[in-house]
Amino acid sequence: MTKQQAFTEVIKKNQGLIFKVSSIYTNNTEDQKDLYQEIVYQLWKSYKTFKGNSKISTWMYRVALNTSITFLKKGKKSGVRVPIEQILTHKTEQEDTILEERITLLHTQIKKLNIIEKGIVLLYLEGKSYDNIAEITGFSKTNIGTRLSRIKEKLKTQILK
How far apart are CA 100 and CA 34, in angstroms? Predict the structure, then answer.
């Protein structure tokens, strides 16, 4: 299998990961597609440096989060501001409108978090352990615990307003 074929397989297997990260860091579909493409490009550029010391998904999260942060910083420098849209990555087909309203509210509040907090919450909601989140972000496990506690409190306060 060639390097290009192996990379294509990795992207196919983990496209949901890239979609989730690009969705949480953007406010519209066009920006989401641009960021998705940029993440794939950055993954390709750094694919040769992946040594296998961690899981491929851990490495991909790290590259995706760093690319997203850079993408946002470039957007802020150019002065482009886009209104926040309510984007749900997983719309349910349930009749329970209360649940849907709560999910929408939570996603809206997550969109208001700063770029680091968004990444940590995304990883937490993905079911990643504190150790894994620490490995991906470069923060200590204790720091992740502290940040998550503060983020949860912040979200709770925002939602109860």
Answer: 28
